[in-house]
Amino acid sequence: MIQLDNRLARMAELMTPGGIGIDVGADHGYLSVSLVLSGRAKRMLATDIRPGPLSSAERCIRENGLEDRIDTMLTDGLTGVPLEGATDILIGGMGGLLIASILEARLDELKGFNLVLQPMTQAGALRQWLCENEFEIVCERCAVAAGKAYSILNARYDGVKRECSPLFALVGKAGEDNSEDALTYLQTLLAREQKTLDGLMRAVHQDEEKIAGSRELVEGLLALIKQRTE
Questions:
Q1: pTM here?
Q2: Per-residue pLDDT of the chain (230 residues; tens, 9 = 90+)
Q3: What is the 3-state secondary structure (H, E, C) of the chain?
């Protein structure tokens, strides 16, 4: 059995049980192989833009005897990927803006899909894109891996365009995750935003609007953390 780190394990948990998934940016193929071995996924398509990682994924697939249940494809994002019959699209290990651009390219074809998205950076930009393009963020699961905290977004198209406040863009539904990893994620966001606020306050020419916005984010994060620790 493939041993997934916390980040990939949280992604695997959000896969539709018994579904057919497309793993975009599959890297070494661990997520696809684990999903099929565990029975969580019936079939997978593992894609990557780089020949080296895709070769590693193909080796992992062969070593686990899953050539008949996991296909591979060398491509950029979802370019040319057959979507018919799939239930889930899993994209992780890249920035939020890049994930959004990959989804944007096939936007009209994403209705009905379960999206599992793990941004390494720019999570706020991805949340904003989802809200603007009529996707509901159903839930988020946080994970600490290799000393860094991440949130994994589970989203579905529902045709409803949503307002995305600065606090929601920053946190999303991570505050609803009761795990210790989620608390670490919130604390990481707080430290980052407090540093931003401190920098704005030290500036020679202060931007009061930016200071007010940053302070509001700090206060929002503090309230979320207080709820968790009381």
A1: 0.95
A2: 688 999 999 999 999 999 999 999 998 999 999 999 999 999 999 999 999 999 999 999 999 999 999 999 999 999 999 999 999 999 999 999 999 999 999 999 999 999 999 999 999 999 999 999 999 999 999 999 999 999 999 999 999 999 999 999 999 999 999 999 999 999 999 999 999 999 999 988 889 999 999 999 999 999 999 988 77
A3: CCCCCHHHHHHHHCCCCCEEEEEECCCCCHHHHHHHHHCCEEEEEEEECCHHHHHHHHHHHHHCCCCCCEEEEECCCCCCCCCCCCCEEEEEEECHHHHHHHHHCCHHHCCCCEEEEEECCCHHHHHHHHHHCCEEEEEEEEEEECCEEEEEEEEEECCCCCCCCHHHHHHCCHHHCCCHHHHHHHHHHHHHHHHHHHHHHHCCCCCHHHHHHHHHHHHHHHHHHHHHHC
- Tokens standing for 71? 């296909």
